[in-house]
């Protein structure tokens, strides 16, 4: 951390090597597009480099802070691309369709055991986590897209995350 | 709400997955500060979520790192030259806004210039069209005037022809054909003599254009003596239009001679072009 705050370029390079796959994974999941995801990743690391002074260790882990920057930047890009709500819903709708018909996983991440986790997570559970986290959908939007009552959205999310945590402990 | 109720409400999961509304988020963040067990529960839940995110890692293209290293190296080099590292960092917040204002003005200026250029272009196009239409309008106007004056010419000519026809149609008119003399055999003229009104009209069917200073003169031979009937000119229409000459009561013969302009008291006999008897 001290190396980072002192703007040590070697430390930054190490940080990039260690975290860029996870952050790039987020950008890819949000945007479904390689070219934009690359731009977002570059922007994210520039923000990290320029704003590292604002990171407060007492308020949370560095990875959490970087994830927040990545998610916000990627979702901003997504929204600037399709700022109309119906277009956004359309994109999400396509995603839901994709999930329900095809659960194949990117081969490069399969070694991490993702497919094992996903097999045990129902489609519903995965979709609700992904819509909220990667697409930035509100409870109302999720209720509309998944055609479930608004009050059910939070319950279903809770069950999904409990199931996820159980799987990850194994 | 107690700590355990936060833990079982589903709010923590919603918070970690970013499903929570801004109000819910604010509420939970207060609870995190208030209850250590809530803070722990949130952190556990967040670790699970982050694990899930990590599972979906994708190796980024190498070009991203190359770009980053280049950009950062350039930025650092720039700061070293300025030796104002701290100052630039302090001002960092304001330049963003300033830059935004600048760029919006820049866009406005670009838009204004484009509009101006577009307007100039349209002005040019419309002005050339206007000039074109004006030229065409003037051409049409000229053409129209020409047609109108031509029409007047034709109407006048037609009126003259009608008038000539009226004269000829009169049953008391006698036609006296005057063929060419031996000296001018191809010449021909005709006299229309109204015996009732004594009027004499002349048609120069074929007479050559006289030399300058000369004029044709019509003669009536009355009791063997020539009587001046008036002079006349040759124009494009004389072969078709009747010219009124002097009146005569009685004539045995009509003849035309070429005389000096204004006519002569007596005919020049060797310049007699045509002659014809009345009976």
Essential attributes:
heterodimer, A: 170 residues, mainly alpha, B: 279 residues, alpha+beta, 4-stranded antiparallel β-sheet
Notes on the protein architecture:
The complex is a heterodimer of chains A (170) and B (279). Chain A has helices at 2-5, 9-31, 34-51, 62-81, 85-101, 114-120, 123-133, 139-146, 150-169. In chain A, 75% of the residues lie in helices and 0% in strands. Chain A has 170 residues and is mainly α. With 279 residues, chain B is α+β, with helices and mostly antiparallel strands. In chain B, the strands form two sheets. Chain B has a four-stranded antiparallel beta sheet, with helices on one face. In chain B, α1 (3-9) runs parallel beside α4 and α3 crosses α4 (36-55). At the A-B interface, α2, α3, α4, α7 and α9 of A face α2, α4 and α5 of B.
Briefly, what is this?
The complex is a heterodimer of chains A (170) and B (279). Chain A is mostly helical and 170 residues long. Chain A is built from 9 helices and no strands.
The helix/strand class of chain A is mainly alpha
Through-space gap between termini of chain A: 32 Å
Mean of pLDDT of chain B:
85
Q: Number of helical runs of chain A?
A: 9
Biggest interface, chains and residues, is: A-B, 53 and 38 residues
Report the count of strand segments of chain B: 8
Distance between the termini of chain B: 147 Å
How do the strands line up in the largest sheet of chain B?
A: 1-2-3-6
**Could you give the order of the helices and strands of chain B?**
HHHHHHHEEEEEEEE
Helix content of chain A: over 70%
What class do helices, strands and sheet pairing of chain B give? alpha+beta
The largest sheet of chain B, given as strand count, sense and whether it forms a barrel, is: 4 strands, antiparallel
Helix and strand element order of chain A: HHHHHHHHH
Q: Describe the global form of chain A.
A: globular
How much of the sequence lies in strands of chain B comes to 15-25%
């Amino acid at each position: 951390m001290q190396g980072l705050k002192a703007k040590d370029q070697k430390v930054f390079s190490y940080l990039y090597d260690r975290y860029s796959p996870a952050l790039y994974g987020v950008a890819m999941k949000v945007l479904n597009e390689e070219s934009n995801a690359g731009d977002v990743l570059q922007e994210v690391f520039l923000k990290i480099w320029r704003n590292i002074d604002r990171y407060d260790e007492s308020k949370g882990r560095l990875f959490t802070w970087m994830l927040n920057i990545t998610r916000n930047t990627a979702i901003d890009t997504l929204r600037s691309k399709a700022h109309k709500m119906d277009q956004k819903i359309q994109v999400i709708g396509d995603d839901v369709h994709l999930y329900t018909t095809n659960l194949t996983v990117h081969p490069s991440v399969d070694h991490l055991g993702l497919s094992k986790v996903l097999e045990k997570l129902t489609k519903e559970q995965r979709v609700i986590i992904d819509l909220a986290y990667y697409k930035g959908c509100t409870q109302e939007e999720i209720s509309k897209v998944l055609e479930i009552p608004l009050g059910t959205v939070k319950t279903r999310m809770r069950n999904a995350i409990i199931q996820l945590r159980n799987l990850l402990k194994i | 709400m107690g700590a355990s109720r936060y833990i079982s409400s589903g709010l923590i999961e919603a918070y970690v997955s970013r499903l929570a509304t801004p109000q819910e988020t604010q509420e939970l963040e207060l609870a995190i500060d208030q209850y250590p067990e809530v803070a722990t529960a949130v952190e556990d839940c967040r670790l699970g979520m982050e694990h899930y995110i990590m599972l979906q890692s994708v190796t980024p293209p190498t070009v991203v790192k190359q770009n980053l290293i280049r950009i950062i190296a350039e930025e650092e080099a720039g700061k070293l030259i300025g030796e104002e590292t701290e100052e630039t960092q302090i001002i960092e917040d304001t330049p963003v806004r300033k830059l935004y204002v600048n760029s919006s003005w820049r866009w406005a200026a670009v838009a204004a210039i484009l509009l101006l250029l577009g307007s100039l272009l349209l002005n040019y196009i419309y002005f050339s069209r206007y000039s074109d239409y004006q030229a065409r309008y003037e051409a049409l106007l000229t053409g129209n005037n020409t047609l109108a004056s031509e029409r007047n010419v034709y109407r006048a000519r037609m009126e003259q022809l009608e008038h000539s026809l009226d004269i000829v149609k009169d049953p008391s008119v006698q036609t006296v054909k005057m063929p060419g003399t031996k000296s001018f055999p191809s010449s021909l003229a005709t006299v229309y003599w109204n015996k009732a009104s004594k009027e004499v009209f002349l048609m120069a069917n074929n007479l050559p254009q006289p030399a300058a200073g000369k004029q044709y003169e019509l003669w009536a031979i009355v009791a063997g003596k020539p009587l001046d009937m008036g002079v006349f000119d040759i124009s494009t229409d004389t072969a078709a239009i009747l010219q009124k000459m002097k009146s005569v009561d009685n004539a045995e013969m009509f003849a035309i001679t070429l005389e000096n302009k204004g006519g002569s008291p007596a005919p020049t006999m060797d310049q007699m072009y045509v002659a014809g008897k009345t009976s």
